[in-house]
Write a structure and sequence with these properties.
Layout (H helix, E strand, L loop, with lengths): L1 H33 L2 H4 L45 H18 L4 H14 L9 H11 L6 H6 L3
Helix pairs in contact: 3-4, 3-5
Length: 156
């Protein structure tokens, strides 16, 4: 056992010295970065990643035409649209239902059964502004004619 310790002890010394230097270097970096009041007597430096444009060495950033900076608190996403969201999810499921209806030679009764399940799954569409868009999608893609009363009956 003593033979093993004598072989490893030089490595432990090297590892300890290198670890100490690493910790010392990190400590110096943070002391310099934070500019602690007790060392410099000044305020603590703001370490935010977004530096104002006037402090940039290259000059003020010029944004492309039509591009503006918006704070995160003012950032909003549209509740309707075809790209993503509730309306897109419902229309994707309606496409699948219409494909199943066409493949299986099913009719209106089967469509209404599928719609009951879809209405239960997407209950939040009852008060959603995209409901008109979904009803228009159903009207234009249904393989059979639907009356106005039938259309307004969906999520209504």
């Amino acid at each position: 056992m003593d033979d093993l310790l004598s072989k490893l002890s030089p490595y432990w010394v090297e590892v300890s010295v290198l670890s100490g230097l690493l910790v010392f270097g990190i400590l110096l970096f943070w002391l310099k970065a934070w500019r602690i009041k007790s060392i410099r007597g000044g305020p603590v430096k703001d370490l935010s990643f977004h530096q104002p444009a006037e402090h940039n060495l290259m000059g003020k950033v010029r944004l492309d035409e039509g591009v503006i900076e918006v704070p995160v608190s003012e950032l909003r996403f549209s509740v309707s649209g075809t790209g993503s969201g509730l309306v897109a999810d419902v229309t994707a499921e309606l496409k699948i239902i219409f494909q199943q209806l066409a493949a299986g030679d099913k009719g209106k009764v089967d469509f209404f059964r599928e719609m009951i399940g879809l209405e239960e799954k997407y209950e939040e569409l009852f008060s959603h502004p995209g409901l008109v868009e979904v009803r228009q999608f159903i009207k234009s893609h249904a393989p059979f004619a639907l009356s106005r009363e039938e259309l307004t009956g969906f999520w209504g």
